[in-house]
Amino acid sequence: MTDSSRATRRLAALMAGMGTLHMIAPKPFDALIPERLPGRPRTWTYLSGVAELACGAAIAHPRTRKAGALATAGLMAAVFPANIKMAYDWRHRPLPLRAAAYGRLPFQAPLIGWALHVARKSG
To answer: What's the pLDDT tens digit per position in 27-46?
Structure first.
């Protein structure tokens, strides 16, 4: 297995796993939804879960891999405000939780880069 195919499989699995988590344990994700979005947070949680599942499935299939990886990069950029909201909301929590919330922020860029790498290698 090449590094490229390993990266592709892992990205597909990550997206499928996160999408599944949104569906089976939505409550923690509801708290990340910015208040300015219309509608109920649960709706947005489920919609983002469906988007993650769709991206994971698209990455897993060679014919849709490039589009799925590009969609993943876009989705990762689109959900960044939720990570900022989490860091802000958790600013008074105990240090380990606060560190986890702040620590997530710099990881969004490598995730986007990972998705773009998979898209480039897909042709």
So the answer is: 999 988 988 899 999 999 99
